Amino acid sequence: MSRSTEGGTVSEARTRLLNTATRIFYAEGIHSVGIDRIVAEAQVTRATLYRHFPSKEDLVLAYLKQADQGIRGQVAAAVASSPSPTDQVRAVAKSITDGIQSAGFRGCAFLNAAAEYSDPAHPIHQAVLAHRQWFLTTVTDLLAHTSDKPADAAGRHFIMLRDGAMAAGCLFDPKLISDTFLNGVEGILKARTIPHLTATTPAAES
């Protein structure tokens, strides 16, 4: 049984800290938020925070891990909800637009973190890259099942459209941005169903 700490068990304190950090990091950015504010809003001591997260970097990495797990679950649920490969891609796209149109949307947590930690060697930047590689691989695999055509370019196209929608979704009309993104995904799917054209030589005039 977990021993008690401020207002609850150790695991409850950790959850409260992580949930508080997640809310503030996502809404306001990472660098602008100090440890003292997180401790105050989570209602724990600094000692309790450092017991669970030895540094702010560890707390940020936990925040990104939680975001990664949430998106993995979201994608898995979308895929499970649709029987056909084409509809699975549509369902993943729809789950993205649901997020864009949700209250408090502030863009992609991973793109936001990458903007604040631009050094490719930094552990936080590395965590962003690992998440994005997983997402690219997942989307490419889904698209690969929609036709016999190679799917690498289509996967990159989907990610590019998604990144643009996530960036624009908190700056412009989220419904319009969502519709534009979904139309773009339909374009990707349509392109994968168009038969390859074989070059032919025009018949000689008689």
Topology of helices and strands:
Layout: E1 4-5, E2 8-9, H1 10-28, H2 35-42, H3 46-52, H4 56-80, H5 85-100, H6 109-116, H7 123-144, H8 152-168, H9 174-193
Helix pairs in contact: 1-2, 1-4, 4-5, 4-7, 5-9, 6-7, 7-8, 8-9
InterPro entries: Homeodomain-like_sf, HTH_TetR, Tet_transcr_reg_TetR-rel_C_sf
Keywords: DNA-binding, Transcription, Transcription regulation
Organism: Streptomyces spinosisporus
Plain-language structure description:
A two-stranded antiparallel ribbon has the order 1-2. The termini are far apart. It has helices spanning 10-28, 35-42, 46-52, 56-80, 85-100, 109-116, 123-144, 152-168, 174-193, and strands at residues 4-5, 8-9. The chain contains nine helices and two strands, in the order E-E-H-H-H-H-H-H-H-H-H. The protein is an all-alpha fold and 206 residues long. The protein has two domains: 1-54, Arc Repressor Mutant, subunit A, CATH 1.10.10; 56-193, Tetracycline Repressor, domain 2. The model is unreliable at 1-8 (pLDDT under 50). Pfam families: TetR_N (PF00440). Keywords: DNA-binding, Transcription, Transcription regulation. Residues 11-71 form the HTH tetR-type domain. InterPro entries: Homeodomain-like_sf, HTH_TetR, Tet_transcr_reg_TetR-rel_C_sf. Residues 34-53 bind DNA.
